[in-house]
Amino acid sequence: MKKIILAALLLAATFSVKAWNTAYDKAVYLVAAQHYNPKTLNLVKQYVNEDVAKASNHLAWHRKNGRHLESAGWHKLHLDASLQPAAQDGNDAYVQVEKALEVIRNRKQYEHAEVSFAVHTVMNLIVDMHNLSNVVIENIPLSHLDDFKVGTSKGTANGKKATITPYSWKSLWTHRYVTYHGAYSPQMWAKDVMIMHGNKKEEYSKGTLKDWTLDIGTYTKDIYGVLEANGGNFLHPTIQKYEEFHMSCLARAAFRIAVLLNENLK
Which residues contact 208 (CB under 8 A, 6 or more apart)? Predict the structure, then answer.
C-alpha cells in the first residue's frame, strides 16, 4: 500500500493544468492521484508519460504545436437557465469529457495515442469546469464574456473607506488566492485541500457528470448573484469569504477526476 501511495504522489507531482495557478493545478492532481485504485494508477502512468510541461497542460501543448487546434474553446462549460448542459457545438467541456470517456471505455478499439489524448482531456477539462470563470450560464450576461473587470476606485471595507483597484474576474478565480500563501508548495495546497474538504469526498464524488454540472452551475449562479447585489464589486471582505469555497472547487475537481478514471479505466 505504501508503494501505491508513493507512486501516486510521484505521478501527480508531474501534473499541472492552466485552469488555475500552477500550485493549485498540481494540488488537484496530487489529491486525485491519491484516490486512484491500483489498476487506474498503473494505466494512468501508461497513458500520461510525457515531459512535465506537456502532461500538465496537454491540450494547450498540442495547440502550440499545431495539433488539435479545435480544443481552444473546450474549457468553457455552457449551461441553460435550469443549469443543464446546453452546448450548441463541440466547444464545451461537458461535451468533450463525454466524448473522451467513450474513447477510454472502448480503448481497445483505439490507438494508444488516442486513448492518451482522451485521458488528458478528461483531466484537463474536469479542472477547467470547476474554475467559476469558465462557466457560461444562460441569462447571466457577464458569464458570456471571456473576462471582465470588477472592483471600483471607491468602496467600503470593514466599515471604512477603501480604494479598490479594478481586477480581472478570471484572475480572481485563477490566481488571486494563491498570492495569500505565496510560499505554499503544491504538496502544502494538497494537504490543506484534504484537511478542509477530505471529509466531503463522498458528497463531492457521488452522482454523474451531469449531476456535477448542476452542482457547478448552482454555486456559480449564486456567486454571480452576490456580484450583482454588490453593484458589480467584489470587495476584499467578500473575496476572503469565498477562499474556503475556492478550496472546495479544487477538492471537487480532484475527487471527480479520480471517480471518472477509476470507473472508466476498468
Answer: none
Domains of the chain and any CATH numbers = 2-264 (1.10.575.10)
Q: Is 238 exposed, middle or buried (0-12, 13-18, 19+ CB in 10 A)?
A: middle
Residue carrying C-alpha cell 500538465 = 56
In terms of Cβ atoms closer than 10 Å to its own Cβ (0-12, 13-18, 19+), residue 50 is: middle
Q: Give the Cβ contact number of residue 130 at 10 Å.
A: 30
Residues written for the chain = 266
CB 166 within 8 A of CB 150: yes
Query: CA separation (Å) from 246 to 74, 95, 106?
Result: 22, 24, 35
Query: Rounded distance, CA 239 to CA 218, Å?
Result: 19
Q: Which residue type occupies 255?
A: F
**pTM for this prediction:** 0.84
Grid coordinates given for 59: 491540450
Q: pLDDT in tens for each of the 266 residues of the chain? A: 444 444 444 444 334 334 555 677 778 888 998 999 999 989 988 888 654 334 446 666 556 555 665 666 788 999 999 999 999 889 999 999 999 999 999 999 999 999 998 998 898 899 889 999 999 999 999 999 988 888 754 555 555 555 556 778 988 888 888 777 777 888 888 899 999 999 999 999 999 999 999 999 999 999 999 998 888 888 778 888 898 999 999 999 999 999 999 999 98
